Amino acid sequence: MNLNTKSAKKKPVLLVVLGATASGKTAWAIQLAQHFGSEIISCDARQFYKEMNIGTAVPSTQELAAVPHHFIQHISIHQPYNAGMYERDALALIAILHQKNPVQIMVGGSGMYIKAVCEGLDNLPPANEKLRTELTHLWKTEGIAMLQANMRTLDASYYAQMENQNPHRLIRALEIMLTHGKNPAHFQTGLSQERPFEIMYVGIDMPREHLYRRINLRVEQMMENGLVDEARNLFPFKHLKSLQTVGYQELFAYFEGQCSLEEATALIQQNTRRYAKRQLTWFRKNEKIHWFSHENLAKSLQEIADKVSNAAQH
After folding, report:
1. Which listed site, 79, 91, 168, 289, has its alpha carbon 20 to 30 Å from 142?
2. Which residues make Cβ contacts (< 8 Å) with residue 295, sequence separation at least 6?
3. Using one digit for the tens of pLDDT, what is the confidence trace for 16-29?
4. How many Å apart are CA 2 and CA 269, to the nearest integer?
């Protein structure tokens, strides 16, 4: 089962392995990278940070040693980083890696970051700093529930599909809605920027019930592995944007006496399931994704190789 490297060299390929959290993307990416002799470009925004390990399900030492990985714990929570910066860094790295091998693997579940690399980002309206300050104050004094309620009132449909557990995303969406009367999706042109490589999307398809069981089990394992202590060490920095994420916010609430540890654990599981649902909603909009059953990697490897080879020739 060999990839026709001569045809692949005609056009570099970026093979994007995506799916919901806990769907097994890391294992798929490693096997595909080993098959093609490529490296792995991580596209999981939660795994960028050095201080966040257990709660972000960073690949194990053995997994990281199996194939060279990039953008895993490469910055600190104290450093500003966003999709635009990742786009710049990832494209530069991909260009270098393609000189070594015409097929490279990108893996992750952060839809906006995948879009940034593969299509480029839309130009959203400039910030309304005064309104943003007011909304940030609202969040800090009234909590995320107030932001959620306001966004839901303004546009329930958009609220249902956005990352509504992230206060910074909510603040930005509210800022745009209140300033321009239109949600952020209105400013998305749908036009892709040209990239110097072909892109093939491979999605992991898993029954919802099975995915949710994996999520619940993963959270239990995280708790056993020391997530509480990890979150406690990060608690002094809870205001940072990088920590406004599932797995840490719930434990911060526990540290503040707002809930029990058992309740916090259940909330992490619930919010992770909701996050997975939003990921799948985002990915299902991309008709270019080739979906494969989570059980059939061995059977699918040749088909994926053939598709990559064909993509490299066009």
Report:
1. 79
2. none
3. 999 999 999 999 99
4. 41
Residue showing tokens 């239109």: 182
Does residue 250 or residue 191 have the better pLDDT? 250
* Lowest mean pLDDT segment, chosen from 48-62, 246-260, 297-311: 297-311
Give CA separation, 6 vs 10, 38, 200, in Å: 7, 15, 18
> What pLDDT is stored for residue 191 in this prediction?
65
Pick the CATH number of 5-122+196-217+280-312 from 3.40.50.300, 3.30.70.270, 3.40.50.1000, 3.30.530.20: 3.40.50.300
Determine what percent of the chain falls in helix, strand and coil, rounding each to the nearest 5.
60, 10, 30
Among residues 121, 111, 123, 147, the alpha carbon closest in space to that of 281 is found at 111
